[in-house]
Amino acid sequence: MKEKKPTLIVIYLLMLALAIYILFPIAWILLMSFKTEQDVIAVPPKIIFTPTLNNYLALFGFGQVGLVSGETFVQGFKNSFILSAASVFTSLFFALPAAYALARLRFRAKDSLAFTFLSYRFLPAITIILPLYVVYQKIGLAYTYLGLILVYQLISIPLMIWMMRSYFEEIPIAVERAARTDGYSWMGSFVRVVLPLAAPGLAATVILCFIFCWNNFIFGMILGGVRTQPLTVGLLSFMGTNEVQWGLMAAATIIAILPELVLAVAVQKYIIRGLTFGTVK
Fold first, then answer.
1. Are 187 and 232 in contact, with CB atoms under 8 Å apart?
2. Strand (E) positions, the chain?
3. In the Cβ-directed half-sphere of 229, how many Cα atoms lie within 13 Å?
């Protein structure tokens, strides 16, 4: 035990250094959000300063500071929530049956088909965004919520199918057979037996898909309109030709990551259990 103690100390120090490296940018942005524009651009950077809430107040409509009004930020925040939540909710109807079929049914090229779904996540969005924009313009889906929700399926469905397939495979098929023996239909056993057992994995998958949708930038920038652009695109509004509103951008960034943190903390136990439940870790 004494021989392992120096090794544990080194491991803890490395973990601490990694945590500082990862969290330092977020901590610095948090400090910037409480600074005035003069304090933000001060040289050398100010660590000790008089904090102010003006940046946060301006974001929520209590006045206007420079380029962006509070209404613009609130609209972008609402758009991001609508698009992300609706996209994940829509994906559940298509991805869960597909993942269950890939986990339980036996047919040729099953693994190849599952990998094909996952390969859609490998394709850079920039390669399809221009032809997709032309198609959307012709069929009237450009600059609409529906158009963005549909294209967000390219983000959430492949990831949800691949992850939920591994979680369903971990559930013993004997459990389902017992439910069918008790009189449940296929759908009844799936809804009342399989889904509750896969709830930790489902929670982890939903949160990850929500985060990927929330953080998407390219689809919202090209296919979103003035009233439908998500918050990630709205952050560009703080950058003008003659100035960059660093304080407002920092405050908006902190608020933008809060929904993800709240969701992660709220279902933390399910995320931890879910990420170690299936074969995908």
1. no
2. 64-65, 68-69
3. 15
pLDDT at 145 over 90: yes
pTM comes to 0.84
Q: Which two tokens stand for residue 186?
A: 């296929």
Residues 187-198 pLDDT 10s = 888 888 888 888
Residue among 101, 124, 121, 126 at smallest CA distance from 111: 101
* Residue 82 Cα distances to 87, 135, 149, angstroms: 8, 23, 9
> What count of residues does the chain have?
281
Q: How far apart are CA 82 and CA 73, in angstroms?
A: 14
Q: What is the largest CA-CA distance in the chain?
A: 74
**Cβ neighbours for 245, distance < 8 A, ≥ 6 positions apart:** 37, 65, 66, 67, 68, 238, 239
Query: What is the percent of the chain where pLDDT is above 90?
Result: 28
